[in-house]
Amino acid sequence: MLVSRETTTRRAELFNQTVYPKNYRGKLIPIKEDRPTDLYGGYSGNTDAYLAIVALEDKKKGKYFKVVGIPTRAAAKLEKLKQQDSQQYLQALHKVIAPQFTKSTKKGIKKTEFEIVLDKVHYRQLVQDGPVKMMLGSSTYKYNAKQLVLSEKALQVIADDRKFDETQKDDNLIAVYDEILSIVNQSFDLYDINGFRKKLNDNRDQFIDLPAETKYEGRKVVAHGKREMILEILKGLHANAAFGNLKPIGFSTAFGQLQVPNGIILSKNAILIHQSPSGLFERKIKLSDL
Length: 290
What we know:
8 helices, 29% helix
């Protein structure tokens, strides 16, 4: 199956819109350059227009790469500089990214050296890193990019709830769960984030304990069913940004929410995949070759 994905940049508000008071405990961004946050308060965070990839060096791990966000408030100025003077542009871009690698410690300010490898990476950029195939949802969010292919029988069981009696229906839905589980265990390494893959295995008994179909009293759900949970699993495994609700089988985090709070790290073997709109042609770029 050929699947192509459109990559995008974002045009949005420069900051998260809530203005916080000066006594806010978190780090604030000034409302204006001449209004210090200790007097006027500020915004809690910025929005990112697009992404970039930088290279870092670790004494033990060696060279690796990290995805960073480029704030919307800096994007217009950077684009203008890029057209006028490439050297000034790279210096300005480095200055914009630097705060993400600067932190305050007991010994003072610690700065981590980095090298800009790709100055502009779009959202939903397709990446292959070892067994993991994903799209970049942001500097901290990964989207699954693998297609889940089920057997014809499994698709029939999911689609047709009137063809089987209750016992057959129950057994068939368990078989579908096991088929999905087998594929996830074999191919969906990305779902080790938040322990999703392990929970699908560990919580199988909770799935088996559910009725085949969701039970209602009037409009109120009194028992979630196996078919409903399978549809929620498929939602979270789909090659997009959708999440599934698996609370009835013991999941506390939305299934498919593939967030890495400290930022997305890519190995030296990571490959960026650029696709034609038709999906017929691909161009692959290995980060370590840049």
